[in-house]
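ERR on first pass: missing label on line 2. Operator R.T. fixed the label and resubmitted. Corrected input:
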Amino acid sequence: MMEPGLYHILFISTALFFIGMYGFFTRRNLITMLMSIELILNSVNLNFIAFNKYVWAGKMDGLFFTLFIIAIAAAEAAVGIAIIINLYRSHQSIDVASAEELKY
Amino acid sequence: MMNGSTIIFYLLATLTLTCGLLSVLTQHIFRAAIYVLFALIGIAGLYFWLQYEFIAAVQIVVYVGGIIVLIIFSIFLTQQTGEKLAAPKLDRKIWAALATFCGFALTIVQIYQHSFSSFSQDTVDPTVANIGHQMLDVNQTGYALPFEIVSMLLLAALVGCIVIALRNKTEQ
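pass 2 clean. output:
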């Protein structure tokens, strides 16, 4: 156990990224896949903040990237869930297999 | 010699990684949403630990208060209560675990072989005043244009959600 620094945070964000990746590979339910995407986006945000603090402390660019990623993730989740609920209305299922025809 | 800050860091890291791992492994979709919630709270705690209080507040408001509530609502609307998710096939589990573990090992080895050095001596405090000034600055280092573009994107997402939600009603 040492004093936590940049490498510890990079370890956490890498682990979280690949945990989200595993969920994305194994899940077949659209909502849980969306949750895995949120985990992946959060690990990226953590990376940006850690690099901003430990490597570029004189600027705030990483912080702004994080803010914009959070805004875009919110928009993406809202549209994604609207699509998922619409899919459930027409197919009575939110499995990816039921979404294979992307008509109308 | 562990001081308080180090202990808090390891607690937050354990919370984040454990809840993240449980959320992709559990077969109950509602529990998965709650585990994701705690993983996101753990990340917000890490932002507090790094002393980026504004980002931590945004993380809690947008993710914990917004996206997770949205996900829980959509679970209520689409899932039968008490129904378990189908377990993934064993070979898919094995291949996914193998692929992600190899990717993880590769990335971690690359990170630990590289030595990061700080590029700047002076530090800017990420206070709300500093963030606001640079966000709405129209000069070279300002972020006024991305700010406007993101606001247009949010408007478009709002309109898009309304259009998607309305369409079935008019057809019926």
